[in-house]
Amino acid sequence: MAALLPSSLVMRTTECFYCENEYENDEETFGKVGIRYCSTHKMAAKRDSNAYLHRQKRVKLRDAHKHPVLGPFLSQCTTPTYIRRSNGEVQGQWILQEDEYNDLMILWEEGAWYIPMIHSGIHITKSVALEIFEDAQIASLNPPVLGLQVPAIRALLDEGFYKADYEAHLGVGPVIMRPETAGVQYCIANGQLARVFHPPGSTA
């Protein structure tokens, strides 16, 4: 059995991406992209989805909450916290941004790890770099334990939160993408690549 790359879950048949048996559910990697699986291949779908997140340096908040190192840090960020805004302003009332309907991510960008946060008063959102919590001024305003945890968290994320799944994924065999659904074609819409369905015999 090959390992899979996540692909669009839209306009797909109700078949497992691994074996084409009737599917049980979808492992969503992000948005409507992921891997459709049957009861036999549920763990394989989770493994391959996590391997993709490892390569992209992304961690789902719902997974991070369960980790013995990341979980306590994120829980502390659910109470009002001080951060430094992009304009240099130090501002309080920032909390971890969470969404029960969408998988928010810890992500790597421009040489730093970022967590999603929201201002509890004016409800603006911002990706906040972990290093901000080590800033001396910010650390003096927040509970000391917050900044002290950052080195261990950074080391964990640098090593790879999903490293074990990534290594298992590589050990399975060739990595392939699920063949496209019959009748689905690609086009450019509003400057972006899109998928459209053309019924058999259509000339559009």
What's the SSE blueprint?
Elements: E1 3-5, E2 7-8, E3 25-30, E4 33-37, H1 42-56, E5 58-60, H2 61-64, H3 70-76, E6 81-84, E7 90-96, E8 105-109, E9 112-119, E10 125-129, H4 136-141, H5 144-148, H6 150-159, H7 163-172, E11 175-177, E12 184-189, E13 192-197
Parallel strand pairs: 1-11
Antiparallel strand pairs: 2-4, 3-4, 5-8, 6-7, 7-9, 8-9, 9-10, 12-13
Explain the overall architecture:
There is one protein chain. This protein has 204 residues and is of the alpha+beta class. It folds into two domains: 3-56 and 174-197, no CATH class; 61-159, no CATH class. It contains seven helices and 13 strands. The chain has helices at residues 42-56, 61-64, 70-76, 136-141, 144-148, 150-159, 163-172, and strands at residues 3-5, 7-8, 25-30, 33-37, 58-60, 81-84, 90-96, 105-109, 112-119, 125-129, 175-177, 184-189, 192-197. Strands 5, 6, 7, 8, 9 and 10 form a six-stranded antiparallel sheet that branches. Helix 1 crosses helix 7 (163-172). The radius of gyration is 20 Å and the shape is elongated. The model has no long low-confidence stretch (mean pLDDT 90).
Instruction: Summarize model confidence as the mean pLDDT.
Output: 90
Classify the beta-strand content into a percent band: 25-35%
General shape: elongated
Q: Helix proportion of residues, in percent? A: 25-40%
Helix-strand string? EEEEHEHHEEEEEHHHHEEE
Query: Unreliable segments (pLDDT under 50, ≥5 consecutive)?
Result: none
Please outline the major beta sheet.
6 strands, antiparallel
